[in-house]
Amino acid sequence: MHRTVAALLLGLALVAGCSAKVETGTAKPVGGDNPPVAKFTTAPADGAVDAPVNVPVQVTVAEGTIDQVTVTNPEGQAVAGKLAEDKKSWASTEPLGFGKAYAYAGRATGTDGRPVDLKGGFTTLNPASQVRATLFPGDNDTMGVAVPIKVEFDADVSDRATVQKALTVTNSAGVQGSWAWLNSREVHYRPEKYWPANTQIHVEAKLYGVAYGGGAFGRADVTSDFTIGRNQVVKIDTPSHQLVVQRDGQTVATYPASFGKDDDPALNTPNGTFVVMQKFDTWSFDNPQYGYTNVVKKWSVRFSNHGEFIHENNDNAANIGKVNSSHGCANLLEADAKAYYDSAMVGDPVEVTGASMTLPAQFDWYDWQIPWAQWQTMSAL
Length: 381
What we know:
By secondary structure, the protein is mainly beta. It folds into 3 domains: 39-123, Immunoglobulin-like, CATH 2.60.40.3780; 129-229, Immunoglobulin-like (Sandwich); 232-364, L,D-transpeptidase catalytic domain-like (Beta Barrel). Helices cover 12% and strands 40% of the residues. The chain has helices at residues 2-25, 160-165, 334-343, 372-377; strands spanning 39-43, 58-62, 64-72, 81-83, 89-92, 101-110, 115-123, 129-131, 133-136, 142-143, 149-153, 167-171, 177-183, 186-191, 200-205, 211-213, 216-218, 222-228, 232-237, 242-247, 250-256, 272-275, 278-287, 292-302, 309-312, 330-332, 349-353. The strands form 7 sheets. The chain has a 5-stranded mixed beta sheet with strand order 21-20-19-27-22, with no helix packed on it. Strands 1-2-5-4 form a 4-stranded antiparallel beta sheet, with no helix packed on it. The longest helix has 24 residues, at 2-25. The radius of gyration is 37 Å and the shape is elongated. It starts with a helix and ends with a helix. Residues 1-31 have low confidence and may be disordered. This is Lipoprotein-anchoring transpeptidase ErfK/SrfK. Pathway: Cell wall biogenesis; peptidoglycan biosynthesis. Keywords: Acyltransferase, Cell shape, Cell wall biogenesis/degradation, Lipoprotein, Peptidoglycan synthesis, Signal, Transferase. GO terms for molecular function: acyltransferase activity; peptidoglycan L,D-transpeptidase activity.
């Protein structure tokens, strides 16, 4: 009896021991069938189309850290990028190309120790047109104190506000200025008063991928670093028959001159603040309306696209310093014209007073003919 009970109990114990062993062997590992906790997020999203080219690609991971990320272009080249120190995000550091398909690849390790792979891709926008911009002054130029900063486009810009937000000007003098749209293809920047002498200026036009409106986008960024030179201003009071050159407000030269005819407003050297635009050792003057073509003069300095120059005219020597007899230019004797020419710099202001006619603000560069309050209203922002 006792042996039978003992045997039965032993058998039950053995059965129980076998059951426990089987249950332990089939237990599920940590995590079980649950998905890995790490999760990638990308911008642009997987499958996105018309993605911007000038916004950095962003890859982030939640509940994990990034082991590696690559974004490749159709040629298989990797887009430059940088992984954050905490390894939770990656961002591209170079612009993308228009109309290209990019592929994501990468891996992250979750807080649960399990890996997650990144796969997918997106396509960038393919603009209807790409608009080129040019910037003036250029790198390493030295300019006069009245020089405007100009950005010119090879097509009309309809979304001027968006474009203007991409333009910045900084300078060593801390001078503030304002952009003004002169037309749909040209925007200028100037301060309220002339630039301080010796100012270093940096201009950035971050226009690549910027929407100009109408399906047009910026073709490329452009930048410039240039310098403002000495302060030199030409002052012309037409009744005086003298051209005065000032440096830092002090007169350094006075030249006898003959300006445009006083009795004919169409032939005046007109009132206004102009800017030296170009210099030529010789220049051929043509005005068939007044009976002359191919009249070559030395030491010619253009200060308006209306047609005004400061130049040598020894043929008019009898009137220089005495009578205003030109067709609008400032005539000087040859030696004086050469001396002035050598001192002149593109961007120098030329201030004209005393004439019977004031030139409308429509002939380049007319920036300083527009009052400051009006100039500010010409901004798109």
